[in-house]
Write a structure and sequence with these properties.
Chorismate Mutase Domain, subunit A
């Protein structure tokens, strides 16, 4: 080992660190001045999405894009907190995938508040007690989260962002081995996502559904004969040992989360989605006529999901995701034509599409 070269490299790293710190301080001062000039909310979903995409496109390596995005997400989060510390609620308790999604989207600087239910996240956001809520909307394996869809219809809140979170399920316990596990706690969806693994490795052990994976980890931390299926953060928080990692049956298992607020993204970011819910008369050709404007104006539909309307037997509403922002001319024209044809239409918001 060349000690002189190693010493020179360490000195160079120290000098670079000092320069990075100076630049971070300058960025913080600029962000604070932006807040003074705007005299309003600093958090702009479309602007933050543009910054992260631009930085990712300029990345020369060797750091991977995911690492660069994480670093700059934290820088932006810290700068925002200088002027406007955010309160962000999620489906708790602490250690859930919802918390992981919230931190992925907002960074570490906000005050994160675990709430007992998705309904409570909506109510606290609508009441203005918190700034933003993060709620699950669908999973690639288990499908839609019905309660979130229903609450989007009932509440006046809008979608201002989305988060895609790859779900890695781990079996964790105080027990020393799989052979010592006598029961498994987890959320019903996680049990379903790990069904094949459980059938192979713990076929005779009872599975106990609970309100959340974090609650499962908390229970397992109090029961030396039990195990929980949860994420890595829950193992760390509750002092459990991971007996088996990545036990989900589908390696591409992903959950999509929405960021809800009293506003959506005010302007386009360059890669956006627009979500809406609508209904149409139950007669032949009604759906074709309803969706015809999307083809007419060249707007791509990325999701079409039906849900009981709760207003009458066998009546449904349709949740639709479109590519583009509501202010983009093709989307604006398509929405205007769609509204004329629908018996009911509620725009749920336009927002930057999630970056993986």
């Amino acid at each position: 080992m060349d000690e002189s070269e190693l010493l020179a490299l360490r000195r160079r790293i120290d000098a670079i660190d000092e320069e990075i710190l100076k630049l971070l301080a300058e960025r913080g001062r600029c962000a604070r001045r932006v807040g003074e000039l705007k005299q309003g909310a600093l958090y702009r979903p479309e602007r933050e999405a543009q910054v992260l995409r631009r930085i990712a496109s300029l990345n020369p390596g060797p750091l991977p894009e995911s690492a660069v995005r994480t670093i700059f997400r934290e820088i932006m989060s810290a700068c925002l907190a200088l002027e406007q510390p955010l309160k962000v609620a999620y489906l708790g308790p602490a250690g859930t995938f919802s918390e992981a999604a919230a931190r992925k989207h907002f960074g570490s600087a906000p005050q994160f508040l675990p709430l007992a239910s998705i309904d409570e996240v909506f109510r606290e956001t609508e009441a203005g007690n918190i700034d933003y809520g993060v709620v699950p909307i669908e999973n690639s394996v288990e499908g839609m989260v019905g309660v979130t869809h229903d609450l989007l219809l009932l509440h006046p809140l809008q979608i201002c962002g989305e988060v895609m979170l790859r779900i890695h399920q781990h079996l964790m316990s105080l027990a020393p081995s799989l052979a010592a596990v006598k029961r498994v706690y987890s959320h019903a969806q996680s049990l379903a996502q790990c069904h094949e693994w459980l059938a192979r490795h713990l076929p005779d052990v009872p599975y106990v559904p609970v309100a959340s994976n974090a609650e499962a980890a908390r229970l397992a931390a109090q029961d030396p004969d039990a195990a929980a299926i949860a994420g890595e953060a829950a193992a760390e928080r509750y002092g459990l040992t991971v007996l088996a990692a990545n036990i989900e049956d589908d390696p591409n298992n992903t959950t999509r989360f929405l960021v809800i607020a009293k506003h959506d993204a005010a302007g386009p970011s360059g890669r956006d989605k627009t979500s809406l819910v609508c209904s149409t008369p139950n007669k032949p050709g009604a759906m074709h006529r309803l969706l015809e404007p999307l083809a007419q104006y060249g707007v791509s539909m990325t999701k079409l999901q039906s849900r009981p309307a709760k207003s009458g037997l066998w009546e449904y509403v349709f949740y639709i995701d479109l590519e583009g922002h509501r202010l983009d001319e093709p989307v604006r024209q398509a929405l205007a034509a769609l509204e004329e044809r629908a018996t009911f239409l509620k725009l749920l918001g336009s927002y930057p599409a999630a970056a993986w």
